[in-house]
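Bug #77: duplicate submission created two jobs. Keeping one. Sequence:
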Amino acid sequence: MKIQLSLSTKCNIHCTFCLKESLRKNFGFVENIDMDFDVVKKILNHDFENISICSNRGEALFHPQIDDIILYAKEKGHKIRFSTNAFYKNSNWWKNLGKLFDKSDSVWFALDGIGNKTHNMHRGSDFYTVLRNIESFINSGGVAVWKFIKFEHNQHQVELARELAKELGCRFDVMNSHTYNSLLKKPTDSKVWTNRNIIEEEICSTDYIPCDDKKYYVSAKGILFPCCFLANIFAHDPIRERHREKDLVDLFNKEKELLDIRNNDIDYIISNSEFFKEALKKRSYLCKEICLKWTRNQIG
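Kept job's structure:
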């Protein structure tokens, strides 16, 4: 069993297509909370195949007890995969993290270009600060992955970035974005999977979804979800109440207290939640649309 933790909804940058930004712009919904440390410890006391500390609705580095959380996870023997914009903490902090992590742990750094002209069009962090932090982490023994999201404006830098990653000593992972606008346009050198062609090619009619049913997600509020994509909808009132699958919305609203890790053990929630059972049984349209789109946009 694997689990993803969203430790904080706070962030220091404004990525254009981040769900946090969408909620703020479209609904005026702003939420800045940190997962309670007792909840974190309750989760880490379980035996998981690995722990993903993700930053898909905030930057985990902003959790006030991030150092204690990492130390506790390592004391419990967990393998950690840490995703971050790395535009926080100084290079000495990253150096110490590289010393603490072993070869089964990794940090995934978000850099969408080479130099600020291309990188800042999407991220809004300083390219050179992030690069310095990556170098500090790697040079002290850390395992790093450069995560590069490709658009039309930065597609010409993909191979240059791949070479730089090789020089730094980190893995390079590139994918197409699955959302675009008039400024951040689709790349022209590879096929991009969007909602439209996923639907038009009837991919959503298949029962296959490329995910692991045992990779769970915990929101910063301590709510357990079957996966991070379902959490994108059901963890946020403005989106949840507008969702097309009203039966799942009703089940979630009914089971809020059951799904709260502060109230129940993870295994108990998974075994007793009708929301979990229905979400996994139905293979909801959301799963097919989002997961398939995300998987097919991976390039490598």
